[in-house]
Amino acid sequence: MKMMEQRKRAGGGFTLVELLVVISIIVVLMGLLFPTIGIVKNAANKARAATSIQSLSGAAKSYNNEYGKWPEPANDQDFILVFNGLMNPQTGQKVTNGQAANDNPRAIQFMEFKVKDVTIPGTGSQSPLAFYDPWSMPYGYCFDNGKKGSYYGGPFQNGTPSNLQSWTDSTAYDNQIPVPFRDDSSSSSIIPGGCAFFSDGPDTRSGTDQSEPGSKNTTKAYEDDVRSWK
Length: 230
Known about the structure:
two-stranded antiparallel ribbon, alpha+beta
């Protein structure tokens, strides 16, 4: 009789206790796995941002080689149009006048921007027209031309980037650009070279404020930025 019960149990699947144990193990494993997934995703996004910044730096240097100067975009939209050969990636139409056309009179495409590049991740929004990093903030930029670049101090909120800031190069063509905010990580406040780009990183904030205001985290906002300079 006992042998028959053992055979029935062996062929009848898991008991309730066994199922609860299996579920508990799965829950524990998922709890251990989720932080790892976040770390891997964050590392992948930082690698994407670094690649984009490298591409921007290469495009800017190609522009300088072609025209013997640095571009002077009036805003993020001009920035996109100048580097994309005056082609609007949203509409597929070329602009023929304005600051962008003046900056790139030969309509040379120094870097290709696709619709996904100018769409705010996670929202589907394409306004304002800008080149967005993996965390939904436009890349900051400045050129050694004595003009104003720009960046967003963040955070990303209400579905849009916030806190637009001017990034001004005070002296043209001296082969250096000022760091746009106080930076405790370096003794130098100068970026060598003719162009500079950066991303606000995962916290979508830049500068010396706390990365997570109101929390016990004392990490400075700039510490997770992805930059074209060291």
